[in-house]
Please model this.
Amino acid sequence: MNSKTMFYIVKRLLLALLTVVVVVTVTFWAMQAIPGGPFNTEKAVDPSIIIKLNALYGLDQPLFIQYVRYLGNAIVWNFGVSLKVKNTAVMEIIGENLPYSLATGLCAAAIAIILGVVLGSTAALKHNKTADRVIMVLSTASVAMPSFVIASLLIWLFVNTLGWAEVGGETVASYILPVLTISLSPMCYITRLTRSSTLDVLGSDYIRTAKAKGVSKRKILFKHALRNSVTPVITYAGPMIAYIITGSIVVEQLFSIKGLGRSFVNGISARDYPQVMGTTVFLTFLMVFMVLISDILYKIVNPRVDFD
Amino acid sequence: MKLGQKNPLSFQVDYDQRLFSLANRGEKNAGQISRPASSFLRDGLRRFRKNRVAVVCSIIIAVLILMIIILPFFWPYSYDEMLGVHKDYTDASYSNLAPFQYGTTEIARMKAGEFIFPHIFGTDPHGRDYFIRVIVGTRISLLVGVFAALVVLVIGTIYGSISGLRGGKTDLIMMRIVDVIYSLPDMVIIILLSVILNEAFGFVQDNPLVKTLGANVISIFIVFAILYWVGMARLVRGQILSIKKQEFILAARSMGASNAHIIRKHLIPNCMSVIIVSAALQIPSAIFTESYLSFLGLGVAKPMPSLGSLASAGRDALTLYPWLMLIPSIFIFVIVLCLNLIGDGLRDAFDPKQK
Model:
């Protein structure tokens, strides 16, 4: 690793830190804008209890002090204690749900990347033939459906009509449908991406040279073309994985599986401020981290690219 | 020297005057350009018209837009009229009617020879005519999409072009801001903001705009204004930077073209394709975002329908009354598919490298 690469990584890390600080700031002040405190309930509560509760959670301090304290705690990875779930740190709630989100997200990402690259290269190799047309029509059509509609139709078909799967189970089988639903739209995007980049690469001079030398079609694709044609997929994949993990709220809700998104939505409806803020900051961190990883991977796969 | 007299040292050949005759009208006009120069826009439109898929999609969208503007004015039912609800009793036979079915009192009136306007898509669980609800829902969804795209277009283009044209330190700082916003988890921020804005707008419920659209839709616009312009800004800046460096700009500059001329004649036409396409693709993305928010209960205010809220409400009774979900879903599908294909067609047509 040369000094230029080091400098680039340090720069990106600083930027990532800045992003997290911005998110903490925005989230903190936005949560303050919501009228009503976390302890406002339907029942009349003794005011002295509210004062004690506020003092316990530090909510009686001036806002700016609360903000600085929260920022300091967030940097040392402490997001406070949940206001609604008894005796539970926010990190515990995140830690409990993260494995589910990670497993679902990574499986979906793997399916999307593998199938997407395979379908995309196939379409490019069979350019303007039936296979290409079918793949393009399907991948264009499937991104025009909101995922909750696709999920509802899948549930209706496989759960209610055929009875092959169940919703809300803890078994591996009950995660198959959600994973499929989540992977569909990124898969279609990767298919289109791979197809157009493979077409670009297949039209370039060095591929023509390889063909002229008599290299077999299979070898051209796997040894020469693929390495160049998957580079756009790599740049897309990093943010995609983070996006899948953070953005599958709808699917988690529908299939009633555990996950970060669902606990986030529950936290919002329960006005559990520390949990909502903690999850937001955590997900931002995840996103920033994945983008950084994918940028560095991009450089390794494609040494011609210079860091700007 | 006298005019008309030839200099004795001149090499000019003496022509015989009789070789020449007056030019007629046709010959005089030969040098003129007979048709107006084809502009960039017209070239693009000509190429667009040749793309059959994109043209069909445009026609479908145009018909839909006409329908959502005209139909609600003279449709005999309104989107929030519960047909089975009367002052003292509720007629349950109007709930969840299948397409082209009628309620009991309507059947009685039809037997008496009265003409009853059919419920083309049936009715919803509250006994409201579903066709007009879907039409009004399409209107709301498209409005949300178009406004969100406009917000993104204006903010993104202005920000991106300032950053790209100024360059240097300005560019550096502006792009770091974009980087920060770009790496936010958008779904999370959207949900957070719409919850917060919804609470904040609670005070201004009396405002007519907030009242009809609901605080959630206003917060969708705000969210788009805060989050989604960054993609557009990056695109415009990148485009301007790459064009600024090209030889034809240098050539124009060396021929004495003013800055204004270069921006008007070279930068804008070359950025146009990217801007149009990404604005067109912004509309389906906003329609999707609205439908997700509706699914989470953060969509338009009731009883106003949107395609997303209709589809997610219809989900509850998918096995019993499948059309309640399928019809708005098909509308979303057709609209998003057509807009995507139109966007692709525009990209192909307005690519300046393609002539």
Residues 160 and 166 of chain A are 9 Å apart (CA to CA).
